[in-house]
Design a protein that fits this description.
The protein is mainly beta. It is 0% helix and 57% strand. Strands 2, 4, 5, 6, 9, 10 and 11 form a seven-stranded mixed β-sheet that branches. The N and C termini lie far apart (37 Å). The relative contact order is 0.33.
Length: 115
């Protein structure tokens, strides 16, 4: 499975960004798509996931501000980020996990939120 993330950039606090992540290759075994992030000097953390049945899950600090969604026909997952805060600054990674618990990672896209 190959993942290609994009959409990062510099935005002012309170602004919005949408991160798309397209998947290709053997995606038939993928049952969870998600987004992680890693801020400088911090551990990588889970931001949001979406299961094949559409159930979503979010890190508490992004609930109500971020939305994960998918376009099945395009094999693409989106992370819509609203009301961005400086503490959301990080490299964002999209992921795909198979039903055999193998995790695939995209290359990461930088999101910088200025105060």
């Amino acid at each position: 499975v190959q993942l290609q993330a994009s959409g990062g950039g510099l935005v002012q606090a309170g602004g919005s960004l949408t991160l798309p992540c397209s998947a290709s290759g053997k995606i038939s075994g993928v049952n969870v798509r998600g987004w992680y992030r890693q801020a400088p000097g911090k551990e990588r953390e889970l931001v949001a996931t979406i299961l094949n049945n559409g159930i979503t899950n979010y890190k508490d600090s992004v609930k109500g501000r971020f939305t994960i969604s998918r376009d099945i026909r395009k094999n693409t997952v989106y992370l819509q980020m609203n009301s961005l805060k400086p503490e959301d600054t990080a490299v964002y990674y999209c992921t795909a996990k198979t039903n055999y618990e193998k995790m695939y990672w995209g290359q990461g896209t930088q999101v910088t939120v200025s105060s």
